[in-house]
């Protein structure tokens, strides 16, 4: 069986695990120090992103899109509704991306390598604080097709505000995700979300795909079994 040397850069090792990759990547290492990805310091730099980069980069972009709808004549009274539609659309996108792309099953060399870069690294090293949120360049690659989907289902004047709301939803998602791993919530709702998400990491990774909310897990039947049991008994 192929083994991975954790003291060496990982990205081009994990592909060799073949069908053993799935088991390996869901056996987490709990240390706070993340692994090295590449030999190249230049490439390595782009794999690390502090959480605060997300609001700094994406909130101005979201406000730019929202402002575009205003300048095209959408009444301010309607803007908040469009933003809410975008926020709700993000929660669905969050669920679908997490379930069907981030948890795609791979066995090939390049499939394993791509998955490790996309999401596998987070499951293997869930406490690596610099590889928890999406690097802005990677997020932009998802933003472009999402913008095109929004335009497909809305009008030219409303699409920017909806997309701005979707981007604000993304900011909320990545900041929430960081907090669920590294924050110490005091109130009940954040405590529940933290427990819910850590259950996905450490207990049953093929359930509980919602990060900001379990809404779409309820809709699509992917609530973790323990949560289903708790809801029936309450």
From TrEMBL:
Keywords from UniProt, A to Z, are: Endoplasmic reticulum, Fatty acid biosynthesis, Fatty acid metabolism, Lipid biosynthesis, Lipid metabolism, Membrane, Metal-binding, Oxidoreductase, Transmembrane, Transmembrane helix, Zinc
Which cofactor is essential here? Zn(2+)
Q: Which InterPro entries match?
A: Fatty_acid_hydroxylase, Scs7
Domain of life of the organism encoding this protein: Eukaryota
Q: What molecular function does GO assign, one term?
A: fatty acid 2-hydroxylase activity
**Subcellular localization:** Endoplasmic reticulum membrane
Q: What topology in the membrane does the UniProt record assign?
A: Multi-pass membrane protein
Biological processes per GO annotation: fatty acid biosynthetic process
> Which regions span the lipid bilayer?
49-67, 79-97, 132-150, 162-180
What are the annotated GO cellular component locations? endoplasmic reticulum membrane
Please report a single Pfam family linked to this protein: FA_hydroxylase
Q: Where is the Fatty acid hydroxylase domain?
A: 84-222
The record's comment on protein family reads: Belongs to the sterol desaturase family.
The UniProt entry, under PANTHER family, shows: FATTY ACID 2-HYDROXYLASE-LIKE PROTEIN (PTHR12863:SF15), FATTY ACID HYDROXYLASE (PTHR12863)
Q: What is this protein called?
A: Dihydroceramide fatty acyl 2-hydroxylase FAH1
> What is the scientific name of the source organism?
Arachis duranensis (Wild peanut)
């Amino acid at each position: 069986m192929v083994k991975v040397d954790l003291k060496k850069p990982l990205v081009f090792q994990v592909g060799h695990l073949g069908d053993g990759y799935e088991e390996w990547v869901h056996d987490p290492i709990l240390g706070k120090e993340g692994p090295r990805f590449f030999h190249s310091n230049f490439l390595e730099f782009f794999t690390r992103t502090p959480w605060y980069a997300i609001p700094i980069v994406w909130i101005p972009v979201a406000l730019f899109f929202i402002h575009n709808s205003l300048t095209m004549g959408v009444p301010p009274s309607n803007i908040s509704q469009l933003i809410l539609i975008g926020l709700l659309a993000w929660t669905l996108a969050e669920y679908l991306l997490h379930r069907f792309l981030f948890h795609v099953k791979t066995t090939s060399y390049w499939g394993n390598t791509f998955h490790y870069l996309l999401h596998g690294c987070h499951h293997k090293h869930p406490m690596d604080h610099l590889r928890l949120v999406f690097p802005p360049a990677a997020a932009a690659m998802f933003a472009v097709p999402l913008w095109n989907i929004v335009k497909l289902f809305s009008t030219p004047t409303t699409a920017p505000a909806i997309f701005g709301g979707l981007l604000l939803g993304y900011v909320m998602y990545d900041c929430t995700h960081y907090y669920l791993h590294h924050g110490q919530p005091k109130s009940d709702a954040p405590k529940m979300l933290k427990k819910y998400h850590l259950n996905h990491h450490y207990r049953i990774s093929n359930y509980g795909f919602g990060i900001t909310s379990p809404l779409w897990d309820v809709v699509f039947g992917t609530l973790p079994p323990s949560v289903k049991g708790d809801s029936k008994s309450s």
